[in-house]
Amino acid sequence: MPALTPEELHAQVSAVVAAFQHPTLQQDLIHLHALHHVAMLDNVLHIELILPFAWQSGFVSLQEQTTGTLCRLTGADRVEWRLTHDIATLKRAKNLPGAKGVKNIIAVSSGKGGVGKSSTAINLALALQAEGATVGVLDADIYGPSVPMMLGCEGERPSSPDGKHMAPVMAHGLATNSIGYLVTDDNAMVWRGPMASKALMQLLNETLWPDLDYLIVDMPPGTGDIQLTLAQNIPVTAALVVTTPQDVALLDARKGIVMFNKVSVPVLGIIENMSMHICSQCGHAEAIFGTGGAEALTEEYGIPLAGKIPLHISLREDLDAGLPTVSRWPDGDFTRLYRDIAGAIAARLYWDGEVVPPDIAIRIL
Ligand SMILES: Nc1ncnc2c1ncn2[C@@H]1O[C@H](COP(=O)(O)OP(=O)(O)OP(=O)(O)O)[C@@H](O)[C@H]1O
Fold first, then answer.
1. Residue ID of nearest Cα to ligand 1 atom 31
2. CA 241 from chain center: how many Å?
3. Is 292 flagged in the annotation as binding?
4. pTM to 2 decimal places
5. Sign of CA dihedral 269, 151, 211, 130
6. Which one, of 261, 262, 244, lies nearest residue 253 by Cα?
7. How much of the chain is in helix, strand and coil states, percent to nearest 5?
8. Residue nearest to atom 28 of ligand 1 (CA)
9. CB 79 within 8 A of CB 42
10. 307 has binding-site annotation
11. Do residues 212 and 176 lie in contact, with contact meaning Cβ atoms separated by under 8 Å?
């Protein structure tokens, strides 16, 4: 096969890459300006992509689906792929100035306690990381700060390099801070609303976050004053509402959606947790909390169903061991599920959002 000119090579690769379809792509990769570099060296085709949202799973599909065709069309022996992420900063609700070092904040909330908001927040944070992003977690769940326990770093304390700011606790690659690192016993439980909101805003603004693509904020459950104040003041890009399929949880999830609407925070999706019980003995799936509720909610508010996570004993055991499922079983089925949800969320955040210049993080230490 005669060697292609660089222009011909670029045209061939562009055509194949442009034809690639994936649920996360609302425009093809060429229109997205993702194809950064194409070259043939020693009969190895080098292709570099730059994506504005966390896209590792999409990248794997692209390689699987196009490598053979590309070799055939270009005469290359193999393809050397490279993906770089340059995650876009997206417009925040009410154009609030961002938190230093943080590109995008995603609030994970629930209308009521115990639906698995923290479990979902942590596994999604780890899944976004696995998808190629740098991620942090702010545990704002003042009434049950479970993030330290779930990440296996109970008893740790953030250090302070300057006596004013806190260096986050690093756990499983995530930069984390939690009221649970700072307040022992049940002290925080008795804080009144304004005190709690102030403490949480301080936690957000006085943590020395490393450059983060996404900061997941595990919100306190419910829709009271604290939640409303936080939803209003945290520079959130979008929110996720976690619910279970029971009517009572759905009723509260509805209140959560209304609360975010009130303060102009877009709700990116609803996550149905504990949607099916999967028996650890026989694998039988049973809808012990009912079915169809989250779908009804998504229809009513025109908000997408971001995903359904089953109720399974291993998800709880992993968290109790301080080794969340996505971290403990990187190739497991539940990890696949969380990564699919995370990839879809990252993409939707980008497609629904408006790209703004990142804040320049200036910190005086
Ligand atoms: N899908 C699931 N399968 C099995 N166990 C789960 C699942 N989701 C959550 N759990 C378990 O349920 C319990 C409550 O979860 P979690 O603490 O995440 O809820 P929450 O909504 O954040 O609660 P709160 O708001 O009261 O802090 C935990 O023990 C957790 O491990």
1. 316
2. 13
3. no
4. 0.93
5. negative
6. 244
7. 40, 25, 40
8. 316
9. no
10. no
11. no
How far is Cα of residue 104 from the mean position of the Cα atoms in its chain? 10
| pLDDT digits 0-9 by tens, 2-30 | 788 989 999 999 999 999 999 999 999 99
What is the rounded CA–CA span in Å between residue 253 and residue 242?
7
Domains of the chain plus CATH, in order, are 6-85 (3.30.300.130), 89-356 (3.40.50.300)
Write out pLDDT tens, residues 150-191: 999 988 999 998 888 999 999 999 999 998 898 766 665 666
If you measure from the C-alpha of residue 113 to the centroid of ligand 1, how many angstroms do you get, rounded to a whole number? 9
The secondary structure of 167-209, three-state, reads: ECEEECCEEEEEHHHHCCCCHHHHCCHHHHHHHHHHHHHCECC
Give the pocket of ligand 1 (CB within 6 Å): 110, 113-119, 141, 144, 146, 221, 273-274, 309, 311-312, 315-316, 319
Nearest to 52 by CA among 89, 106, 11: 89
Rounded CA separation 124/230 (Å): 21
Model ipTM?
A: 0.97
What's the pLDDT tens digit per position in 76-106? 999 999 999 999 999 999 888 899 999 999 9
